[in-house]
Amino acid sequence: MSRKTKRPPNGGRPWHGRNASSGCSISISKRAVSAAVSPTDPCLADPMSLPKNQPTARFALTHPIHLLAFGFGAGLSPVFPGTLGTLVAVPLYLLLQPLPLTIYLCVTGVLLIGGIWICGYTSRALAIHDYKGIVWDELVGYLITMMMAPQGWLWVVAGFFIFRFFDILKPWPVGWIDHHIKGGAGIMMDDALAAFYSFVVLQLLVFWFK
Questions:
Q1: CA 20 to 30 Å from 1, out of 8, 138, 178, 203?
Q2: Of 137, 132, 141, 136, which Cα lies nearest the Cα of 77?
Q3: How large is the greatest C-alpha to C-alpha distance in the chain, in angstroms?
Q4: pLDDT tens readout for residues 8-38
Q5: What is residue 28's DSSP assignment?
Q6: Which three-class secondary structure state does DSSP give residue 55?
Q7: Burial of 146 (0-12, 13-18, 19+ CB in 10 A)
Q8: Taking the alpha carbons of 142, 144, 145, 150 in that order, is the dihedral positive or negative?
């Protein structure tokens, strides 16, 4: 006796119907359903492995490299992430400021060189060059600005605003570097140069007022 094969309704063919409220035709097939739930769908795939045009807190805070690039979360701010990233540098500067100048310069140099890789890594993961939430460059830029600065909150605040001025204004060739040099090197170099301008201005203020 032959076994009867149970066939799905409508013989397994695509179902066609009409939405009663809108009058629009609806066609659903097995292929469409399988595509809708495909594991390659970006909505279903692991968000940590995908490029992020709008990075989430999970992306920025649970990966150690992204955590550094985003300034320990400061770069997630929807407004003024660069300013907040610079603020994160203030307590770090206060920790480094009492150290001998040679140690301060060595630590800042390591953070600068390491930042090329850190910012480049996160930039590639985001598939966006110099994403606004990447603020490690602002953090290092503030440390460069504050080299040899006198003690006191007046200079801490002055250095903060001077650096933010040059980082936002981007005088030549800072703006040129920002637009023409890609990758981690470009991200770090424009802020490092803005920080150098800031360092010079701050030292002139120290010379005039000290």
A1: 8
A2: 132
A3: 106
A4: 555 545 444 444 444 444 343 434 333 333 3
A5: E
A6: coil
A7: buried
A8: positive
CA distances from 54 to 47, 49, 160 (A): 11, 14, 28
Q: How many whole angstroms separate alpha carbon 208 and alpha carbon 196?
A: 19
Is the Cβ–Cβ distance between 188 and 112 less than 8 Å?
yes
Show the tokens assigned to 42.
């970006």
Kindly state the tokens that stand for 114: 């390491």
Owner of token pair 């609806």: 26
Structure tokens at 119: 């910012």
Q: Enter the tokens of residue 143.
A: 């440390």
Single pTM value for the model: 0.73
Of 42, 38, 39, the closest CA to residue 51 belongs to 42
16-22, Cβ contacts within 8 angstroms, sequence gap of 24 or more = none
SS3 of residue 29 by DSSP: coil
Which phi and psi angles does 69 have, rounded to 5°?
A: -60, -35
3-state helix, strand, coil in the chain (%, to 5): 65, 5, 30
Question: Angle at CA 97, nearest 5°, toward 80 and 189?
Answer: 50
